[in-house]
Structures are given as C-alpha cells and as structure tokens.
Amino acid sequence: MITHEFITVNGLKLHIAKSGNGAKLVILLHGWPEFWYTWRYQIPALAEHYTVVAPDLRGFNLSDKPKGVAHYSADVVASDIAALIPALGFEKAYIVGHDWGGAVAWIFATIYPQLTEKLAVLNCPHPREMLKSFKENPSQLLRSWYMFVHQIPVLPELMYKYTLPLFFKQFVRGWMYHKENFSDTDLQEFVKAFQQEGAMTGSLNYYRAMLQTKPNKAIFKNNIQCPTLLIWGEGDKALGKELTYNTQQYINASFEVKYIKECSHWTQNDCPEEVNQYLLNFFE
Hints:
By secondary structure, this protein is α/β, with parallel strands linked by helices. The chain has one domain: 3-Layer(aba) Sandwich (Rossmann fold). 40% of the residues lie in helices and 18% in strands. The protein contains 13 helices and eight strands. The protein has helices spanning 42-47, 74-87, 100-111, 127-136, 138-143, 145-149, 155-161, 164-173, 184-194, 199-212, 218-221, 267-270, 272-283; strands spanning 3-9, 12-19, 25-29, 51-55, 93-98, 116-122, 228-233, 255-260. An eight-stranded mixed sheet has the order 1-2-4-3-5-6-7-8, sandwiched between helices. Strand 3, helix 1 and strand 4 form a beta-alpha-beta unit. 45% of the residues are buried.
C-alpha cells in the first residue's frame, strides 16, 4: 500500500509517496520528465524490506515550485533530501536516483556522507565525468542538445505544453524496449503531473540551473565515501555508455556497474525486474 503526504523541508512542501515500515529508509529520486510515479515498479518490491519514500522533487508535480532558477541547483535540491531524512525519523538512508535524480544523488552523497548508507544511481554519470565529456567528447555534446534548448526562456514550456501526450509517447515509450511497461494509463499520469501549475517551468529550471549557477565546489574536491552501485541501460539514446568507464576514480569505497542490455534511458520502467533485483542485492 502506498500512502501520500506532504512534509515541509527548507520552507517548502514536498509531496511524498511512502510504503513499507522497515527499520532502514530508502529514498527514490526521480529524473526529468518524471515524478514519484516513475518508481511504481520498485516501491512494492523494496517496501517488503524497507521504509520506502519517493518524493516529488521541488518543482515537480505536487511539490512546491519556488520561482527563480537559483532554487533548482542540484546541491539546493540535495539539501531538501538532507532535511527530509530526519523529518521522516531516520538518521541516514539508502539513496537511489535516476537521471536528474541521479545527479542529485551523486551530489547528496558527496556533501552529506553522514546521511548516506549506500548510493545507487541509474543512467546518470558522475557530474565530473559528465562535465569532462562536454569538453572532450563531441558525440556526447551532440546527444545533449536538448540541455541547451532548455536554456531558452518560455519557448520550451510552450513546446511541451501543446505536445505532452505525444512527447511521452515518443520520448519515453518510444525509446523503451519493453513498451508494455509504459501503458496508456501510465502515460496519462505523467501528462497530468506536468499539467500541474508551474511544473513545466519548475522541472526545466533544473537544466537552467545546471548552466546558469555556480556548481558546488565539494563535488570537485571530495569523493564518494559509501558503497556505490551504478545501473546502466545500454540502449540509452541520451547518455553514452562510455560515461560509466571512469567512475571508480570518484569513489573511495566499493563500486560496481551493472549493465542491462536492451534497456533504454528509462531504466527502472524498461527493465524493472532487473533493477529491483540489483537494488535488493546491493542493499542486503
């Protein structure tokens, strides 16, 4: 059973989906263009063993959406999660992130090692590796064209506003190998989430903050101190597999990569059984 509630952290109301009553906490951080529901296949499996919380990150769906790009830098979003853990009555958590949630997860584990039990990231490279690829890998720069389009004010909002169902049909289901895992009902839930007032601008501000705000220096100075798992769908059209090859150098603890063939960027939707098993094995 999944329950829903609002918790105030850093002066913002975050909507969370919650399930399970285990002694340890798992926090699932969604990416773009997603919201808590993207973890619908993981929540029941993990809740058999843990307390599982999937928030709508600030700017998304039912959570508050502060105005201004500066409110959406990854370290600011990570501070929401740092406040959420004690608010839920826990001292630390297993942190899982996909896409933009993965970027937040990398930064969270770097800035808040004392709050991070273990770290699992799905199809999101370490920020240092991503930045390096922009400088050294022209093919990745081309793959990331949408990140630069999202910098334009207003236009992306208008573009998505009038094409939302088609966007999710082509960009999410269209990329997936196992299209049956993203049903028409799922598609409508995603459309509804991004029709919430301010959700499109709030979510796009993650991309804008990436290029328009100064990154947290800790991400360049400090390495991850906890056991880390990287799960990677090899059919990712947005992010090349080569972004995973040098990850160990950023981690001062055990590290492993699990590659999934015939799996798109939408890892936890496309191949939920593999993702669930990898996460459960890693946490155990």
